[in-house]
Amino acid sequence: MAIWLEGPVTSVAYGWRLERRDGVTIGFTSHDRDVVQAGLVLRASPGMRPTSIVETLGLEDDGPDIDGALTADAISADDLRTGRWDGAYLEIFLFDWTDPDAGRQLLATGELGAISFTGDAFKVEFLGLKQAFNREIAPSTSPSCRAVFADASCGLNRQRFRHLARVAAVNGNRLIFANPVSVPVDAFAYGHVRMLDGAYAGLTLELQASDASGVTLAERPGFAIEPATSVELVEGCDKQISTCGTRFANAVNFRGEPYLPGNDLLTRYPGAN
Q1: Which class is 11-132 in CATH?
Q2: What is each CA distance from 221 to 125, 171, 179, 194, in whole angstroms?
Q3: Distance between CA 97 and CA 110 in Å, rounded?
Q4: What's the half-sphere exposure (Cβ side, CA atoms, 13 Å) at 207?
Q5: How many whole angstroms separate alpha carbon 234 and alpha carbon 253?
Q6: What is the pTM of this model?
Q7: Closest to 201 in 3D by CA, of 79, 112, 115, 114
Q8: Whose CA, among 14, 131, 141, 148, lies 20 to 30 Å from 161?
Q9: What is the topology classification, in CATH, of domain 158-253?
Q10: What is the mean predicted confidence (pLDDT) over 106-134?
Q11: Alpha carbon distance 190, 117 (integer Å)
Q12: Tens digits of per-residue pLDDT, 142-151?
């Protein structure tokens, strides 16, 4: 145990270190003033706090939730709603705010999960290390392809299916292009669009349908996409063997079992219709 935890009067504060997948790193503290700890500025956020932290022997995730108010410039409601912080690596620790360089007591590590909002307040689910036990370690059989379109197991060259466009107008969850994109109807279905400039540069949204004049987003975005935004479009695949063979001539790399009998056939008994 750290020496600074043993004194009769403690000067202990919570600290949070958040690192996004793109490398952006910020810190917060429950102390009422900013503190520099291990070279990182921990911004004062006394309204932010973790719920109870417990450790059990089971496989249930022990990670605490984190409650707080959206008051810091470094992390905004838009950033949370648009997924910039999805899967961010988080460390929760205690430290002595009178001597930040004296070290810290690590409490938990993990990733950010689901985020919910109530007015200007938010609640973030914390996914601890036990979450790894819930992930599949071997592939299951499936009639559809398990490969990610144009990845190494798929074998197709992703560059063939990338297209650049400029948004002329936005109508609900439909983006209309300034100039037609020469691809078959619904070529972008199951694909995605990535913003290349503007306030939301780098964000990626899934696509549901498309034609030469524009694309339909799978969900209405939680932010306003401005006209004249440059975007990168990536075609998609419905992961069916017929599509893989006829559209892409890539059935040899299909990562599924389309002809494997399903459960209804495997459980059929004599005399069943």
Answers
A1: mainly beta
A2: 22, 11, 22, 12
A3: 24
A4: 26
A5: 20
A6: 0.69
A7: 79
A8: 141
A9: Thrombin, subunit H (2.40.10)
A10: 75
A11: 28
A12: 999 999 999 9
